[in-house]
Amino acid sequence: MNNTLITIKTENRGEWLNLCRNGISASDAAAICGLNPYKTILDVYNEKLGADLTKEETESMRQIREFKEYAAERFSEKTGKKVRRRNRTLFSAQYPFMLANVDRMIVAENAGLECCITDTLHLKKFKNGEFPPECYAQCLHHMSVTGADKWYVAVLVINCDFRIFRLMRDDNEIEKLIEKERSFWENNVIKYIPPKPDKNCNQTLF
User: Fold this and answer.
1) Do the beta carbons of residue 110 and residue 149 sit within 8 Å?
2) What does the buried/exposed string (b/e) look like for 102-128 if buried means 16 or more CB atoms within 10 Å of the residue's CB?
3) Beta-strand pair 111-118/150-157
4) What is the CA radius of gyration of the chain?
5) Least reliable range by pLDDT among 158-162, 164-168, 187-191
6) Does some domain include residue 76?
7) Are 110 and 3 in contact (CB under 8 A)?
8) How far is residue 124's CA from residue 132's CA, in Å, rounded to a whole number?
């Protein structure tokens, strides 16, 4: 697979949001697969075709962003692995409809880090070494765009727990995801044909 990346730096949140209209991000990927409990494939379609994305950052969004910094630090502290920011939006040269804004990349490894912030109400999702399917889709998407061999997930359960998971690259699963994203982009977004709404946002489509 050709993993050549096109990188684009934005100067502010507005530029970044507009750039995201030009492709499918990791959070979009989960929704397209019916795995995002808070966002549907129709929501993604509307965003790509003109829905207002320029809303100001909410208090919740700011806290999640700042807790991600803490989660990345705890990951390094617990594993001894160094991480670095990638302050650019990454586009796949082979699949230009796929973009990524990764939380961190792992230094000296062909790997990245997803920082997941949650609370005790959702702790059960991470028991028994498992994590939510929407997070799985996001990691597959990031590995596809970056060509990474693995992706780590740092889960911060606020005021309760901190857990680390590792997801190894699975090219068969990644190809399934790419085809779902390609179909959505080429048959819905480009052709201005709304997708059918999800009957169940939590259905597993892999």
Assistant:
1) yes
2) bbbbbeeeebbbbbbbbeeeeeebbee
3) parallel
4) 16
5) 158-162
6) yes
7) no
8) 10
User: Can you name the residues that pair with 150 across neighbouring β-strands?
Assistant: 111, 168
38 φ, ψ to 5°?
-115, -5
In the block, tokens 């997941």 appear at 116
Any idea what the CATH number is for the domain that residue 97 is in? 3.90.320.10
Domain of residue 170, residue span: 5-189
Structure token pair of residue 47: 């965003």
Residue with tokens 């995801």: 177
Q: Indicate the number of domains in the chain.
A: 1
Is 75 within 8 Å of 69 (Cβ atoms)?
Answer: no
Q: For 184, phi and psi rounded to 5 degrees?
A: -65, -45
Q: Is 100 inside any structural domain?
A: yes
**Whether the Cβ atoms of residue 201 and residue 36 lie closer than 8 Å to each other:** yes
* Residue range 117-138, pLDDT digits in tens: 887 666 677 766 777 888 999 9
CA-CA distance, 71 to 52, in Å (whole number)?
Answer: 30
Do 206 and 33 contact (CB within 8 A), yes or no? yes
Asked if residue 196 is part of any domain, the answer here is: no
Q: Does residue 198 fall inside a structural domain?
A: no
**Could you identify the residue written with the tokens 């549907």?**
40
